Here is the input.
Amino acid sequence: MEYQDEPFPALIEKRVDGEPDISARERAVLEACRRKNLGDLRMLAETPGGFVTDRVRQRAWPVLLGLPTDTEASLDAPTWKELPRHRDEDQVKLDVNRAFIYYPQHQNDAELERQKDELSSLILEVLRRYPYLCYFQGYHDICQVLLLVLPPVLRAPAVARLSALRIRDFMLPSLTPAISQLRLIPDILRAADPALYRHLSSTEPFFALSGTLTMYAHDITTLGEISRLFDVLLAREPVFSVYMFAAIVRSRRDELFDTPRDEPEMLHSILSKLPRPLDLESLIAAAMALIDAHPPEKLQSWRSISKASVLKTARDADRCTAQSMADGERFFRRQLRELAWLERQDKILAELWRYRRPAGAVGIAVLVGVVAVLLRRPGAAWAGGPLAYVSALLVRLGR
Here is the structure.
């Protein structure tokens, strides 16, 4: 399906409120879309105003997400309703029932129910077509924004690519990758604002979970603001969202210093809610300055981020746009294996502690057996290397 100019026939128009004519920016965005010039689109997304209108976003967002031009053909038979039910559909229903609280303003209950049905269908289509993805609470907030901005034919393909290639870390069966992203925020603050970092040192960065997990769609209450923020979040690499929250924290510096550092619950309460009013343009500029001055590769916690995480597989936004859905599933499977390995490691550490004072060789033999079972590897294969390390560690612990 080729993008045509017909949906945007009247781009040369004067604003009657005395503000400058914005048609030049609209034309610039559409020209960048026509040429698929991601650099120009990124620049336009970052500068004040972003893509300006939803009719222009209908062209820009699909380009940034790398939608193929044969979108309609890719959604041929079977229809999503014929596919097996996804395991998370009951939770989807519960969340959709709570959707559209702030926007748009529906004329009546029938209109609201129709839009909830559309949102439910959008989410279920993506989950049934890509059943490896796990639904998370707040996903419906993200999908709601794309539903309200994009035309129907582009919604499911756009949400699918966003899910597999840009927010994949959140669609795993564990929150561990999401928490790993949050660990970057203290590192950013330590590099950019040591005094503020020290003041917040007793506060875990979980205050940023809702914002980063939902691309801020759960916390921003106007469609205009969240659409504007999506311009830059879709144009930039996924790690930009983390820097955005670090910029939000720094914007509240005075308020935070007015709260004693030995009251982490109060600090957490302040940080878990976005400031009002929300000066998006200043925050976007501040986040860009932070990522330029302190790129993630220089942050200590970056080493703990999985190589299969979207933060690394989509570190280059242009490369992410060119990735396929098959790439997304491959990275997902790799992360899934890593999570299973980490779970086994935790079990091993628990057993190490349990047998920290074993009865000599018998205790060592027991532990070796436990390790072999947990790792599902033959004991003989671990006669050297890891087994020797475990044995030596066990001897030290038993002294």
The chain has 22 helices and no strands. The domain at 176-323 is CATH 1.10.472.80 (Cyclin A; domain 1).
